[in-house]
Specification:
The protein contains 10 helices and no strands. With 214 residues, the chain is mainly α. It holds the Pfam family TetR_C_1.
Length: 214
């Protein structure tokens, strides 16, 4: 493919539009994303974008595609499915940490593009080869994804215009809440990484138990 000559603009493409959109969300937040803003980022008229993306919703689906393509899924045999899912969960979490502003998109947009299907294919085919029934494989993947996204919202997700809160139990009257009072120190001392590990291990242990007893 011929490179643009000096002084020439790089040709517009779907890939450039999606890269610009993700850059805007990472830098300015999801509420800043618009076709006009993408056009300004690329120094083109917003109307020229519609030749490559039908509407803003297509851009959102494309952002999901870009994020899923960042994932480096482990190359483990199907009989190591538990370790496989463990590594997938951490890889997914790390991707979300790199792009915290996209959490609402990932949480609400289904996989709607062919470019997004490779990770799903990898996950489902691994579980099928491991002996999971089709519906079990789907439920397992969705449970894992939901756990990672939910924990990510708790740890580093933000709502625009809303400052993250901090726990301040020690300054509350807790006489009527004995269990909370007993564990106030533990509640305020939680470490997100430890909590994520705790929940993930138990999610996988429960899945392993169900697979053994079916």
């Amino acid at each position: 493919m011929a490179r643009p000559k000096a002084g020439e603009k790089t040709p517009l493409s779907r890939q450039r539009i999606l890269d610009a959109a993700l850059c805007i969300v990472d830098r300015d937040g999801l509420e800043a994303l618009s076709m006009r803003k993408i056009g300004a980022e690329l120094q083109v008229e917003a109307m020229s974008l519609y030749r490559y993306v039908a509407k803003k919703e297509a851009v959102l689906d494309g952002i999901v595609e870009l994020l899923l393509q960042e994932l480096e899924l482990p190359a483990l045999p199907p009989d190591q499915w538990e370790e496989y899912l463990y590594q997938v969960a951490y890889e997914f979490r790390q991707m979300l940490q790199r792009h915290p502003a996209v959490l609402p998109i990932v949480a609400t947009r289904p996989v709607n593009t062919a470019g997004s299907l490779a990770p799903m294919e990898h996950l489902l085919s691994t579980l099928r080869k491991a002996g999971f029934a089709p519906l079990e494989a789907v439920y397992t993947v969705n449970s894992l994804v939901g756990f990672v996204i939910g924990h990510a919202f708790l740890d580093f997700g933000t709502l625009q215009g809303v400052e993250p809160g901090t726990s301040d139990l020690k300054n509350l009257a807790l006489e009527d809440f004995p269990a909370v009072k007993e564990m106030a120190t533990a509640l305020e001392a939680r470490r997100s990484e430890d909590e994520f590990e705790y929940g993930l291990r138990r999610l996988l242990a429960g899945t392993r138990l169900m697979q053994k007893t079916k």
